[in-house]
Specification:
256 residues; 5-stranded mixed β-sheet; 38% helix
Length: 256
């Protein structure tokens, strides 16, 4: 998916009403986010029960139930200003990175691999040291082939790292699957289902292990309380450092 079509969504919630004029009385206009003047689009729906926000590379979309007073929508948007500011900046960091990232490289387990695409009658990908050689017909999408190669390796590698740390915890997920989320590295449900983002296969093993430890700790505490972080620390002693490193390189990993 091209960078300018990506979107982050803010989960819906029911804010406290504190009237504060912020938006023009129209369903579209310009919203001031930090120093940026960002177009917005207000969408009302009878099916919605909560307020929510979606940020794309071009605009902010405000989602609201059809019955919500205008003042309440304005208050909600004002309350989410810091989130909007961070997300808008992150979105455009993605766009800038996409424009500057060489098309002939990819990351794999923290290493940069050079792409070597060669014409062939059949699809095949082979790794030779720091080079990933892609054999494909001239009309094939080499980018999609590389993406499929990464996903295939992620399925085995992430399951292996998750199982490895689960043994230390003494319990494992009831189900494991890959995720294609655009904003989360992992998730854990109340039923013990864990999903890890396949894009993690681009990161060093230490960062993969941190995300695995984080989600496994949710099997013990399904929150982010001090008790939860204590379990994470047991599974991954330098979790905070790894978390910071993942945040630093996160934008580049989501470009794939």
């Amino acid at each position: 998916m091209p960078p300018n079509s990506r979107a982050w969504s803010k989960p819906g919630s029911k804010p406290k009403w504190r009237g504060c004029p912020l938006l023009p009385h129209a369903n579209s206009g310009v919203l001031q986010i930090g120093d940026a003047a960002v177009p917005y689009l207000l969408r009302r729906s009878r099916r919605r029960r909560t307020l929510g926000l979606t940020v794309t590379a071009h605009e902010v979309r405000i989602h609201a139930p059809s019955w919500t007073p205008r003042a309440e929508i304005e208050t909600y948007v004002r309350q989410q200003h810091d989130w909007l500011h961070r997300t808008w900046a992150r979105m455009h960091a993605h766009v800038r990175q996409a424009e500057s990232t060489p098309a002939n490289e990819l990351r794999y387990l923290g290493r940069r691999l050079k792409l070597d695409v060669r014409a062939s009658l059949f699809h095949e990908i082979r790794r030779h040291g720091n080079t990933l050689r892609v054999y494909a017909p001239l009309d094939a999408d080499a980018g999609e082939l590389v993406r499929d190669w990464l996903i295939a390796r992620a399925e085995r590698l992430l399951a292996w790292r998750l199982a490895r740390i689960a043994r230390r915890l003494g319990r494992g997920p009831s189900r494991f699957a890959l995720s294609d989320a655009r904003t989360q590295w992992g998730s854990c449900t109340r039923r013990g289902h864990i999903r890890l983002n396949w894009r993690l296969v681009q990161a060093p093993l230490a960062l993969i292990d941190y995300v695995a430890a984080h989600e496994l700790a949710h099997l013990v505490h399904l929150d982010h309380s001090p008790r939860f972080w204590a379990v994470v620390a047991e599974l991954c002693p330098d979790a905070l450092a790894r978390r910071a490193e993942l945040r630093t390189m996160g934008n580049s990993l989501f470009l794939v």
